[in-house]
Write a structure and sequence with these properties.
Elements (H helix, E strand, L loop, with lengths): L24 H33 L4 H28 L9 H20 L3 H29 L5 H26 L5 H20 L15 H5 L10 H30 L8 H30 L3 H20 L3 H28 L7 H27 L9 H18 L8
Length: 427
């Protein structure tokens, strides 16, 4: 059954189509492989190797340095994605609109990884990571734009599900690489960088990229660049509601992932010396559950021809998980709660992107619009560290009121699910 989407007529451009033909299995496989390779180089440093390298360079200042490096890096990523997406939308290269950014960003990312793996200076490592975030998010913006450009609506659910599979598969690969490479500073950065460049180079060679005629290129101005970070709700109401829904749901999801380590030590009294092992265990459970549920329910949403019911199913599973986590008295029960949360996140993620893609305004601005959508992923991660402390302090005689935090997480996701009802163009 086809997905029901009532889309307005959009602008046509050379090589650009509002209704792309059905994507072949080969193209989808190569697209997901490219995503997997990109996420290996993008996520592995933040998960493990930057912390290891800072420990090697400056053991006494590692905590403060890690906060600075990762905090500024997250801000750079949030700015770079829609900005370079906007530039990709107006690229008139003979190699296409997307290919130069796909391959060029990955190449610069590898160079940054080489610097990070060979320097003994914290400022140099920080600068290289911030440059890598800019370059790799330029690649991510161009790659994300290919979903609305090259995948028709009736296949977008399963491809969105495969996207979550690729992201969490990259986390598993990154954890594996970090454990195998160990303390070797150069290779623990360079190998993920090589993986990213090879995956993107292979995909770039296979991609039949659309070319934009110079006459069709939108004008470049300060105002147009600033517009890369904002979409007017009056002119794009459905997209704006989809953005807000994602923002609220991810705000709830990050409550658990951001504070799980503190919850394990403060509430479940896990020994700090073994905390990394416990967090690794929950990360593996999360990755497996998200990969399975996202892939399965993305396919089911395409078959059912509906998206919104799966948003509510995902949020319902997350709400159940919060009850389990709040009532947990030991690590095994906590893992069950993490499993339910991850299943819910996977179900939600499998259709959330497909909903947003269905209400994009034009293939001419796909990279910009997908970059703005990415802000709804990254901004909650930063905001939750500001919002959570007052919630944790609510009427609690213990150091932190995690019950209040996880109830708030549930409310964030429920409101996010209700918000998706305001999207009119998608069932």
């Amino acid at each position: 059954m086809p997905v029901s989407v009532n889309r307005p007529s959009l602008e046509a451009g050379r090589g650009l189509s509002d209704t792309p033909p059905r994507a072949s299995t080969g193209f989808i496989a190569s697209y997901i492989a490219a995503q997997l390779g990109l996420y290996v180089v993008l996520l592995t440093p933040g998960m493990a190797t930057i912390a290891v390298r800072l420990q090697q360079i400056d053991p006494l200042g590692k905590t403060e340095n890690l906060s600075l490096v990762m905090g500024v890096g997250a801000f750079v990523a949030m700015v770079a994605n829609p900005l370079f997406g906007r530039l990709s939308d107006r690229t008139t290269s003979r190699f296409g609109r997307r290919r130069p950014w796909l391959v060029g960003g990955a190449a610069v990312g590898l160079l940054c990884m080489v610097v990070m793996g060979t320097t003994d200076s914290v400022p140099v490592l920080a600068g290289a990571w911030w440059a890598a975030q800019a370059a790799l998010n330029a690649t991510l913006a161009a790659l994300s734009a290919l979903l609305p450009e090259r995948i028709p609506h009736e296949q977008q659910g399963r491809v969105s599900g495969f996207h979550s599979f690729a992201m969490y598969g990259a986390i598993m690969i990154g954890v594996g690489l970090a454990s195998v490479i160990g303390q070797q500073p150069t290779w623990m950065f360079v190998i993920p960088g090589i993986v990213g460049l090879v995956a993107m180079g292979w995909f770039g060679l296979r991609l039949n990229d659309a070319r934009l005629a110079k006459a069709d290129r939108p004008p470049l101005s300060v105002r147009s660049l600033l517009s890369a970070f904002y979409i007017n709700p009056r002119t794009a109401p459905d997209y704006s509601w989809a953005w807000l829904s994602r923002f609220l749901c991810f705000l709830g999801f990050f409550c658990l992932s951001t504070y799980q380590a503190f919850y394990l030590t403060d509430h479940l009294n896990m020994p700090p010396a073994k905390l990394s092992t416990f967090v690794l265990g929950s990360t593996v459970v999360q990755a497996i559950c998200v990969m399975v549920s996202a892939t399965l329910f993305g396919w089911l949403s395409d078959r059912a021809g509906r998206r919104k019911p799966f948003v509510f199913l995902g949020v319902a599973l997350f709400a159940v998980s919060m009850v389990v986590v709040i009532s947990a008295t030991g690590y095994p029960t906590f893992l069950v709660g993490v499993g339910f949360a991850s299943l819910g996140i996977g179900v939600y993620s499998s259709v959330d992107t497909a909903i947003a893609v269905a209400v994009l305004r034009s293939p001419r601005t796909a990279a910009r619009d997908m970059g703005v959508l990415n802000i709804a992923n990254t901004l909650p991660h930063s905001l939750i560290t500001v919002i959570a402390p007052p919630i944790l302090a609510i009427g609690s005689s213990t150091p932190s009121n995690y019950t209040a935090l996880f109830i708030a997480a549930t409310l964030f996701t429920l409101v996010g699910a209700l918000t998706i009802l305001r999207v009119k163009e998608v069932n």
